[in-house]
What we know:
Strands 1-2-4-3 form a four-stranded mixed beta sheet. Among the domains are: 436-539, no CATH class; 547-713. By secondary structure, it is an all-alpha fold. It has helices at residues 25-65, 69-91, 111-124, 163-166, 171-187, 190-207, 211-221, 225-271, 273-301, 310-325, 350-354, 365-372, 393-407, 420-434, 454-463, 468-476, 482-503, 509-546, 550-592, 597-625, 642-646, 662-705; strands at 103-105, 131-135, 140-144, 157-162.
Amino acid sequence: MPRASDYPYPPTPDDVPDGYTDFSPEYRSRQTWLLVWVYAVFLLYVAMLEASLMAVLLSVLSVFSGFWCCLGIPIGLISLGVFVYLLTGFFYRKDTEKRDLLIEISEREHPKLFGFIRELCGEIGVNVPYKVSILPEPNARAFESGSLMNLFRPPERELYIGIGLINVLNLSEFKAVLSHEFAHFAHLGGAHSYTRRAGEVVANLVDGQGAIDRVADRWRKRGSFFGKVVYALGWVVRSPLLLMARLYGKLSFGLAREREFHADRVAASLAGSNAATHALLRGRYGDETMTAAVEDLLRAADHKLYSSDLYYHQHAAGDILRKRKRDPEFGRPPKLAHPLDGRKVQVFDEESAEDHPPHDYHPSDHEREEHIKSPFVAADDDERSAWMLFDDPAELRERMTYKFYRSNDVIRKGTPLGDPRAVQRFIDGEHHETTYDAKYEGAYDGRLLTPGDLNELDKLIAKEPWEDARLATVFENLFHGLKDRVEDRQDLVKELAAVRKEAGGAMSKKTKKIIRDLEKDLEEADDWFRTLDRRVYLVYVQMSYRISDNVVYEELVNRYRFHMAVQGIYKTARFHFDEAEFHILTYNALEEMNVPPEVREGFVTEVLAVFRAARKALKEVLREAREINMPAMKNFEEGERLADFLLDQDLIREPGEYGVSGKWVNKLFRQISQVRDKASRLHFKSLGQILTLQERVAERFLVLKGFKQPPVV
């Protein structure tokens, strides 16, 4: 067993206020009400079991006594079915969590980590987890395995630690995260086992997840009368439990929220308020950088480049995101000269709480920071990396990276992984092309070009060419006032998305009017950008012609034409993917609803029509792409055929006349999303090439014609 001197361990604060980690009255109240709920559910459940069993016995007796002999058998069978149905709700168990991406680690492999865990559990007063596993994402989780035996004996508890989180935390923040998770062990007592099991039983019966439900639902969809009867009986049995399920949801949601507050206090009492708060910020940062790194590696995989260290690229993604966000402190906690300075520094503002999902039982980060710092617990920060606790972290990172590639079907078994530095050079080249000059104020970030008909603009240039002085004047004012326009448009896009999300499927007249007004305002904003794109094309194409360099002129015009073709493919693929996704989600919702068969069958016809249209559109864009060759771009050879890059496999066969399989649907979605994502990537690379070429053209034109150079941004 490691001694304390064998592993780094940040000191625990000495001045923790009395009662700081006590359970709040709100917590105790919610825990009590949840136990009352368990007692009520137990009485209701036993009463229903007893009633159905008594009905079976009375039916059997009635058959032997000759009383109601004709009705006794069907009533007995129905009662027996209800009894079995109620029992299946108790014994049904949901699918266990997939463990493909988990790596179980041992104390022999990482003695310092397990020594750290043992000491921390001792301070909190909980048992050491019997199993510790590593997972890829920036997250940590402490939980208990559940079974019927846990109603009579303590459950075994596990700890998951995400490498994506280890990769961004210092030792103090890591201690705060594990303290928070181990505090949940204190919440997972016998009362939790009973309430969780009762909640599962009610949820299984209400949601209809058992074998009887599945069989009855399948027969009902086939039009079977017996299936409809069994399904109706299930609904009758579920009705009294539905109210209990809703009440459980409300009570458990509130209790889970109080548990998070309490676990945060435990974390602050052992690592300090600053570390507990900064760990929340690091978690956000880890999520965003991990997502960016995964996207980067999947793009590199398109070129047969596979890295041996996903987490090397997570670090690199942080630097890239700081440039893109124009925020050099993104993901970095505030620098404090003294631990007590954190008392007056607010990391999360109230506005960030407005974006917090209402269905998430975790409080917003702003609320959690307020709770952690009221009162404030000061502690010195240990800035050393959390990787210090792991032996041979490079081997662990490579194993997890390999699992990441395999789980995403990116590589075959045994494929060698390459030097992450070489792969990052590829990624940096990609981002260099798609990180645009600051003078554009984000006008081209996530926006499609809308210059209009290029043939029409070329005819206008030939018919009414501008004088050099006019070109210079328009160029000088081309991007003036752009920042306000970009911010206004972005605000409209965010507001429109928020209104639609809040409204969901049901929209009142007032909501519809708000959406119409916002869409009208957005259309007006887009009109201004359409005019801008048109002016940009007219100015730079004429400039490229005036510098007497036909090669540059033809390159710029051809790049625009390639760009508009790729943009059209991207828009088409995106539209049909969204349409197909919407219809398949709606179809799944109808499957769960008791709608008439003719309604469901009619929608199936509509879904098939959408799938056929998507496949036809995919075929047409690929045919168009076969006639297009790639221009010179970073990581692409000039002259490569566009279609070969967009889809690296044969196009899916046409759908059947009467239906398609789930396998066919999944393949269609994969192919449309592949074309959409690759066209999107080419769109932003191509746009970067156009902007860079235009900047060179403008510089040469102004020098050649003797006009004033614009200031360097």
